[in-house]
Amino acid sequence: MGPIRMLLIGAPGSEFRRAAELAQSAGAEVTMADAPGAALETLRAQGADLVMIDVLEDVAGFLSDLRTERFVVPVLACGISAPAERAVAAIRAGARDYVPLPPQRELIAAAIASVVERQSQVRIGGCPVLDRAVALAAAVAPSGAPVLITGGKGSGKEMMAREIHRISARQDKIVSVECAGVAADVLESELFGHEAGAFPGAAARRVGRLESARAGTIFLREVGALSPATQARLLAALIEKRFRRLGGTEDVPFEARLIASTSMDLELAVEAGSFREDLLVRLSLARIEVPPLAEHGDDIAALAHLFIAQFAQADGLSARPLTDGAIAVLRAYGWPGNIRELKECIHRASLLAQGPRIEAEDLTRADGSPLEALVQIPAADGKIEVNGLIGRTVEEVERELILGTLERCHGNRTSASNILGISVRTMRNKLRTFIEGGIAVPPAA
Hints:
Radius of gyration: 24 Å
Strand order of the largest sheet: 2-1-3-4-5
Number of helices: 18
Shape: globular
Strand content: 5-15%
Helix content: 40-55%
CATH class of the largest domain: Alpha Beta
Structural class: alpha/beta
CATH architecture of the largest domain: 3-Layer(aba) Sandwich
């Protein structure tokens, strides 16, 4: 797996050299530029995954140039005893955060960790549901065929993509691109690059992500968000193994292996006319579905303990174990946000728990509501209480079960369907029947 590419912008000095050393020790590949202009040349030629710029430089102007030339890269401001107004101005201009210098190892490591998830071990527990996905990943990894990874948001699709890259024969880097929430013209330039003059503001040639991945792996997150024009260009690149930069006349070889992920139903998107069927066929030569966390509950406790250890090390805290009651709540909760939601929940509990162990009441959602108020812990003998069901029709019980599960999953149709053991299509048909009968249905997540 290739290292993160980090670009430091500012006058050379001991503190910047120290920041570079810390970033390298955290696994980053560091390039330094003494001014924004030189940094832009570096970005055009080889790109970067993370940028740190001295607040004494023209941060606002640099960020404006990035937007003009359609770069999508996180930017952190940094400084040595910088005036507070400089840091505030940098944040207001669009910098993600401010990192004081002299640099702290923990801050540099956290900045790098926020860019890319370095947890490449996909299989944590021993759940057969997840084992099937990992086994399929191992089978397709040696080939160069495109892979489509499906699953709910936060379910671990990027971990799966990185695992495929790690065990493949491709020793070059993996380059990730977020497709959702990015303007179509910006994303097209991000992927394919552009030539000088390709559009107003394109001051020089820029190498796109497809090109910078070289013979490694290009990972497209939420590929269903691509515009029709970009879908057409991507399909052509996959078929012809070459493409042209925006405004270009020369072919650029496309050598990277493509892995795409989606949390949407692309078949339905094809039916709706928003996604190309021929591109879906091409992407689906190898298809892996990452199950929702609720389907591999045996992994929940192991993942929670792993996150506790990670946060204890990162935050300088003691690793407090989970009580049996806390583990029972974690297992009973539906986890509509999957692994990502579990990780955030454990982080909050690690920071806020008062006792020597993490109790059930320490587990909360992002809004502060306790998890244990949202779950029903099964009886010790595993039997289901049926007294409250006698006298009710199967239709009534089914409706209440579907709506209750959907509410617990905060409207996530896919998670609720998986928990109930029915298809998403069946779920939609049931909900349509409820709505036609005048029954309120939780809004889709």
